[in-house]
C-alpha cells in the first residue's frame, strides 16, 4: 500500500545495507536525483518502485555481534513503557508457527554469544544507568545458551532486574525460576495462542496444556504472582470447541495464580506465511466468539482484553492490500483519522465511509486475494509455504529445524552455523566496596518533571558514575534511600535532598538538564526537616485568609509574591486550594527545623 509514496524500500535487515546506501548518497552528493535512485535500485535488498517491478532479495546479517548492537540507547527523562536497557540476544525463530510473519522473514536464527550479551549489558548499563534489563528474542528459551546467559547476567549484575520478553511455556525450569526469583519479579508471559492442543497443531504451536500448568507450578513455587497469556481467535480450522477451550483453560489457570492478564486478538493473515491466502474472519463472527469466551469465563481474577475486531479488519486491509489501498490511507489521513491504533481515536464508521468512497474491493483483500508481493524474496520459498499450509489442513506439526533442516531455503541448511552461545564460565562476584551513606542536594530547574523523575535521574546518574546503590531485601529490591517529601509536579526547587546508601565513593553525578547537582557529601545519618520554605507567586493574595491557616507561616510578602513556611508533611497546594488562593508559580526554597 505504500508503493506510491516511497522513493525506495529496503527489504530485510538494515545494519549493513544502510551503510551501503549512505556511502552511495555521500559519493553522489550533488548528483541528479534519477542517478541516485538508479544507484540505490542496484543495491541488493533495495527497491525503487518507480524504476519498475524487480525481484528483490531480502538482506540479512549473518552474524550478530557487539559491533551491530546499539549500546548508547536513549534514556527518557520521564518514566515510559519499556523504561530499561534492551539487548537483542538472538534474532529469528525456527519453530515455524504458521501464523507468524516474523518467524518466517527473520529466518534463520542467529544468536549472540553469552559473553557478548554480558559485555553489551555491562557497557549499556554503565552508560545509561538503568536498573532493569530486557532480553529481546523471538523465543528466549530457544537460545542454545539459555538459561546460562541469564545466570551469567544475574551473577554479573545481581542488583539489576531482568525482564524476559517471551519464554515458552515448556521452558520454565526450577533452575531458571530460581535464578530469576532472586531479583525483582517481572511477569511471566506465555503465548499458547489457541485454546486447544488440536488447534495448536494446526498453527504449529507445539505447547501442551501440561507445559503451561507445570510452568505455573514452578512460577508459584518461586514467588511469581503475575502471568500474562496471549491467544488468537479466528484462526484457520477453528471450531467452537477451540474457542470455548480458551475460557476453559483460563478457568483452570485462574485459581493457581494471583494476577492473570490475558490478551486475545483476532487473527490477521499475513504475507510470507503459510496462511497468507487464508480468508480473515469477519467482524460479526469475531464478536460472537468474543461473547462466547466471556460467557464461559468463570474465573474472577482474570483481566481479559479483547482486541477490537474492527481494528483487526482495517489491519487486514493494510496487511494484504496492494497499492490501491494507498488511496484509502491518504483519504483517511486527509479526514483527520490519525492515531487509529488508539481505541479512543479509532472511528470505524468513518473508515467504512471512506472504503465506500474509494470503491476499493476490500472484501477481496480480506478473503485473501492475489499474491501481489511475489517479487519480494523473503528467504523462505513459496513452495515451502504451500506445503506448510497443506500440513496445517491435516493438523501435522513441522518440527523446529534445529532438530534437522526442514528445507525452507532461508539459509544454506545448517542452523548450527548461526548458533554460537559458547560456554559460560561462572564469574566470581567481586567483593563489594565499603558501604557509605551520601547526602545529595540538587536543584529541580524545570516544573515539567515529577519528583520521582528527579529521584530516578539522580539514582541513574549515580549508577552511570560507576557506583552501585545498596539494595533493600525482599521480592522487589530497590536502592536503599530517603528523600525529601514530594514536590508538586509544576513546582521547581532550589534544594531537594536525597540520602542514599552506596558501595564506594560518589565523585560526580551525570544528570539531565532539568536537574543541577549542588552538593555531594558523606553523611553520618539521615536528617529530615519538619518544615519546608516555599516561594509562591499567587494571583489573589489575601493575607487575612492566609493567616487563618494554622499550618502556614508567612515570612515575606510583596506584590503577589510570598514566602511561607509549611510543615513538610502537608501539601502546600492543597492548603492554598482550601482558602481559594491560586498559586501561579511555586518553588521550594529550603528547609527548616522550626516554623
Ligand atoms: S533452510 Fe533449513 S536450517 Fe535453514 S532456516 Fe530453513 S529449515 Fe532451518
From TrEMBL:
Q: Which GO terms describe its molecular function?
A: catalytic activity; iron-sulfur cluster binding
InterPro entries referenced in this protein's UniProt entry, alphabetically: DUF2344, Elp3/MiaA/NifB-like_rSAM, Radical_SAM_N2, rSAM, rSAM_horseshoe, rSAM_sf
Give the matching CDD domains: Radical_SAM
- Where would I find the Radical SAM core domain in this sequence? 79-307
Q: Which PANTHER family match?
A: RADICAL SAM DOMAIN PROTEIN, SLL1084 PROTEIN
- Pfam entry (one): Radical_SAM_N2
From the broadest rank down, the organism's phylogenetic lineage runs: Bacteria, Bacteria division WOR-3
Name used for this protein in its record: DUF2344 domain-containing protein
